[in-house]
Write a structure and sequence with these properties.
heterodimer; A: mainly alpha; Formate dehydrogenase/DMSO reductase fold; two-stranded antiparallel sheet; two-stranded parallel ribbon; 13 helices; B: four-stranded mixed beta sheet; globular
Chain lengths: 398, 244
């Protein structure tokens, strides 16, 4: 028997301090936006070689996690994992707030944010950006309908939840394909880039949900059965293995062709190698698996939360690596020649993020966190007590 | 003067019809040859790299003057519509070269494909342009272009003392690139870089109509061995290089 849904009290000084902190982060983002709007992108670390910087890393990471945050809802509604049914509202709501945070950063980083509505007026259906406009707005509407159906029209939950699940797979494939379809960039161009984004959304969404659920239940003094956290851990393990599998397949395919030796070697030992090994492999795959498979750590809530935190760091590292390494690798316009020019042809691009860029990205996180905190305060998003359904047992433990 | 309701409605109707029809009307037909792009033409360029001196910057200087392109001194954020690139053979098997690189005005331009607002577009005569009033500054075109031919205007640009008023003034936050000096072409001229190369250098740059089999560029392309940048991408660039 599921517990009744209820909003958190949200009357403690700690809650309001957290709200104030998130509002402050959001204001930092707003201030950063106005600074860039006034002085131009010249005050960022971006340049004519690396044209997408930290705001995009934050924005795309939030969007990837928005898709992944629907995991709990999908696992319950589509794959009948009854133990997660109590978290479906939370799941859809988290997707919405992450989507808002990510899209806000993405739109405000435009060179001309005053023209942000033009893509709705002059659509180019060949552009992945145009597709993503539809995918993001469609996902937003579907998540809202999913949430609404869970509150008032339960007969539609299955249909809307299934549609949202299918949509999120397409959505994240679309996000990855923003890069994957670019033939000119050796690092981006791959059919597996889209699916890799889907896999990373599965891990990061599950990880963020775990952190927020454990954090919310602990801080509000509510009860959450540990078995549920370990159920999330098992899902995270499988998703992380999937991510590792995709990384291996991608590298194996690229290294099989001599045409890619140069760029792939550059990725493994070049200026962004630290991010690849520590961030992509370390935080996305190895460190979480080591923690989760550890006999003692993997069987504690703290251990699962720690692995989840590392996984969330991993999604930022993954997106940063795709974006920054992908743009930094010099174009090989004339094979067989070493290039040089005043426009820095032939050289790895240089990029150091500026504080305003970080401010804008953090502002997006602040906005999402603020909406989340207010949402669980004013709406009945979570069960008063999270317990595993009767008869449900954890199938296995590492 | 007073107007009755019937007159007001009638006048309103005429005004509304005028507003709707006006964009489609042209009172005086402009001569197509001079002022309007023709889909019968395909402008292209042939660059003879054997004639290009590494020390010569006539083409880049002419472009900056013609198109009011400023140099800020920040190599990472400077705007380049055309730039000189030095090529050094990796194995020493080929002679070093110096050549200009600019927008290749591809037949299948990836910048146009990815632009979400159709701000990047192909004119009838194949010239790829950017509508500066429609560009939102998303920079996806810069990601997609394999020639690094586009630049974002990173800060409020300085305007030269005597700017060329035939070229639109640039705006902060918008992406721009070489237009093949479209304003000169429409006046029956040639791009400034080509003209400068022919006047001040050895004349290694040749511009013309690729659709016209009798044009000098078409004839030269039939006679000499030439290549384009990254032909493997299938973009069909219209800037050809001889001597590499």
């Amino acid at each position: 028997m599921l517990s009744e849904f209820s909003a958190i009290k949200g009357s403690s000084p700690g809650y309001w301090k957290l709200v104030a902190l998130c509002a402050l982060l959001f204001l930092v983002g707003v201030g950063s936006f106005f600074a860039i709007e006034s002085y131009g992108h010249g005050i960022t670390g971006m340049n004519n070689q690396v044209v997408w910087g930290m705001p995009h890393v934050f924005a795309i990471s939030l969007l990837v996690m928005a898709s992944g945050a629907l995991n709990l809802g999908s696992m319950s509604t589509v794959f009948a994992s009854i133990q997660f049914k109590q978290f479906t509202r939370f799941s859809a709501f988290l997707s919405i707030v992450l989507l808002i945070g990510g899209l806000t950063v993405l739109l405000l980083d435009l060179g001309r944010p005053d023209r942000m509505l033009l893509p709705m007026l002059y659509m180019n259906f060949r552009s992945m950006f145009t597709w993503n406009v539809f995918l993001y707005s469609g996902f937003f509407v579907l998540c809202l309908l999913y949430l609404w159906s869970m509150f008032d029209y339960k007969q539609f939950t299955k249909v809307v939840g299934s549609a949202a699940f299918a949509w999120r797979v397409i959505l994240t494939t679309g996000t990855g394909s923003i890069f994957g379809v670019i033939h000119a960039r050796d690092v981006f161009f791959s059919a597996i880039t889209g699916p890799m984004f889907v896999a990373v959304s599965l891990t990061s969404g599950t990880a963020l949900s775990t952190i927020l659920l454990v954090g919310t239940y602990r801080k509000t003094g509510r009860y959450m059965e540990e078995k549920l956290v370990f159920g999330l851990r098992n899902a995270l393990i499988f998703f992380t293995l999937l991510v590792g599998y995709m990384f291996v397949v991608e590298k194996f395919t690229k290294f099989y062709s001599p045409a890619f030796y140069e760029v792939e070697t550059w990725l493994l030992v070049g200026p962004w190698a630290w991010l690849y090994w520590l961030g992509v492999w370390g935080c996305c795959v190895i460190f979480p698996l080591v923690i989760l498979f550890h006999g003692r750590l993997g069987n504690t809530v703290q251990g699962v939360v720690a692995a989840s935190v590392v996984t969330v760091v991993g999604v930022f590292a993954f997106v940063a690596h795709v974006l920054l390494a992908g743009q930094s690798y010099p174009f090989d316009m004339f094979p067989g020649y070493q290039l040089s020019s005043v426009f820095l042809d032939g050289a790895s691009a240089h990029y150091v993020p500026s504080l305003v860029e970080l401010g804008m990205g953090i502002g997006g996180i602040g906005l999402s966190a603020l909406l989340f905190l207010l949402g669980i305060r004013f709406f009945r998003m979570l069960p008063a007590k999270a317990v595993a359904p009767e008869g449900w047992e954890l199938p296995w433990s590492p | 003067m007073t107007m009755d309701r019937r007159s007001v409605l009638g006048l309103g109707g005429v005004l509304a019809a005028g507003v709707i029809l006006a964009p489609g009307l042209r009172l005086i037909a402009a001569p197509e040859d001079v002022t309007e792009a023709s889909d019968k033409r395909r402008w292209g360029m042939l660059i003879d790299t054997t004639q290009c001196n590494p020390a010569c910057t006539a083409c880049t200087q002419a472009c900056r003057t013609e198109n009011n392109v400023p140099l800020t001194g920040d190599p990472e954020r400077d705007i380049h519509w055309i730039r000189k690139v030095e090529l050094h053979s990796k194995d020493g098997g080929k002679p070093d070269r110096s050549l200009p690189v600019l927008c290749n005005h591809c037949e299948h331009p990836p910048c146009v494909h990815v632009c979400p607002t159709q701000a990047s577009f192909i004119r009838k005569d194949g010239i790829v342009l950017v509508d500066m009033h429609r560009c939102i500054g998303c920079r996806y075109c810069m990601i997609a272009c394999p020639y690094k031919a586009r630049s974002l205007v990173y800060s409020t640009p300085s305007i030269p003392g005597t700017p060329n008023r035939k070229v639109p003034m640039r705006a902060k936050g918008v992406v721009e690139k070489c237009t093949f000096c479209v304003h000169r072409i429409d006046d029956g001229g040639q791009p400034a870089c080509v003209e400068a190369c022919q006047k001040e250098a050895k004349g290694g740059m040749l511009f013309g109509d690729l659709n016209d089999p009798q044009s000098e560029i078409s004839q030269r392309l039939r006679q000499v061995l030439s290549t384009t940048i990254r032909p493997d991408l299938g973009l069909k660039p219209r800037v050809h290089y001889q001597g590499i």
